Amino acid sequence: MATSxxxxxxxxSLPNLLVFSLNLLLLLISTASFIPLLLxxxxxxxxxxxxxxxxxxxxxxxxxxxxxxxHSNLYFIVHLSLLLISSIGQTLSFFSLFLRPGPCLTFLGxxxxxxxxxxxxxxxxxxxxxMFVLSSVALVLECFVQSWRVKEYEExxxxxxxxxxxxxxxxxFRVESVVDVEAQEEEERMKIKREEGVKTGHYRIxxx
Length: 208
Known about the structure:
Shape: rod-shaped
Strand content: under 5%
Largest sheet: none
Structural class: mainly alpha
C-alpha cells in the first residue's frame, strides 16, 4: 500500500507542477489583457467593462488556485466555478470580437485611429485565446489532481482504520493471553493444594 501510494505521489508531482505553472501564466496573461482595454479608452465603455470583467474573473481564479494548493474542497469548488465562468466569458468575448468586429469597435468607443484600435483589439483577442486555452487545460488537470487527492485521502483513512482494527485485535489478544495465564496459574495452585491435601490425608491415615 505504501509503495503504490509513493508511486502515485511521484506520478502526480508533474501534474501539480503543471497546474501551478499554468495558473501562473494565466495570472500574467489576464493581467496583461487589461492593458489593451485601458489603452483603447479610459474609462472603458460598457463593452470594455464587460471585457474587463472577463479578465478580472480569470485573474481572480488564477489567484485562488494558489490557495487551492492547501487541498481545501471549498477552494476547489469555488475555483472550478470561476474557471467555468471565465471560460464561458472568454468564449463569448472572442466570438464577439472575431465574428462582429465592426460593431465591437463601435461599442468600444475609442478615439484612437482605426489602425491603432484594430491592433489593440487583435492583441486583446490573442490574450483571450491564450486565457481560454490555459483555463481549459488547467481545469482538466485540476480535476485529475483533485481526484488523485481524494483517492489518496481515502487510502490514508483506510490505512488508519486498518491500524486501529489491528490494535484492537492485539489488545484483545493480550487481554485473553493474560486471562489464560492467570487461569493456568490458578489451576496449578489448586492442583498443588489438592496434592498437598492428599499427602496430608495419607500421612494421617498411616499415623492412625
